[in-house]
Amino acid sequence: LDTLRQTLILQMLESAQNNKNNGYKKIALFSAGSVYNELREEYQKIGFVWSGWSEEESISNPKPKNIDFSLFVKKLGSIFGEFELIEDKHIRLAHPYQSAKVLIDGVEVGYIAKLHPKIAKDFDLDDTFIAEFYLDLLSNNKYLANDIVKI
């Protein structure tokens, strides 16, 4: 704790590793908090890690498939709405051929990537996908839910 963290992902990878060691096959985590750049400027980010199965095991689905890039992008799209992906091979911790910057309305707000295979091996994780977004750059739209049935 004597340094300022630059990413939320490393702590979530440790949590994913602990979950896997406890027998979980589907591990989907998120975390939000402060991160800092090289100039010690503080930013608020939200991070996501998904490792292992894409869904829970059930009678109708006894051997679920592992999460893949397109499903991970689709899950994040259900949270943030539509966004654009631009290939980026220079994201830390990321697989060089499965990583992209995320743009919303032309503004880069974060990244989505598959975890680099060497790092996945170091943490003893199966297929793992990561994403991190700057909270300050995301729209702050609030939606009002209506009652379905009034009693």
What does this structure look like?
This protein has three helices and six strands, in the order H-E-E-H-E-E-E-H-E. With 151 residues, it is an alpha+beta fold. A six-stranded antiparallel sheet has the order 1-2-6-5-4-3, with helices on both faces. A hairpin with a 2-residue loop joins strand 4 (94-104) and strand 5 (107-115). The protein is globular and about 50 Å long. The model has no long low-confidence stretch (mean pLDDT 90).
Features:
globular, alpha+beta, 151 residues, single chain, six-stranded antiparallel β-sheet, 6 strands
Task: Provide the fold topology.
Elements: H1 9-21, E1 26-36, E2 42-52, H2 69-80, E3 84-87, E4 94-104, E5 107-115, H3 117-122, E6 128-134
Antiparallel strand pairs: 1-2, 2-6, 3-4, 4-5, 5-6
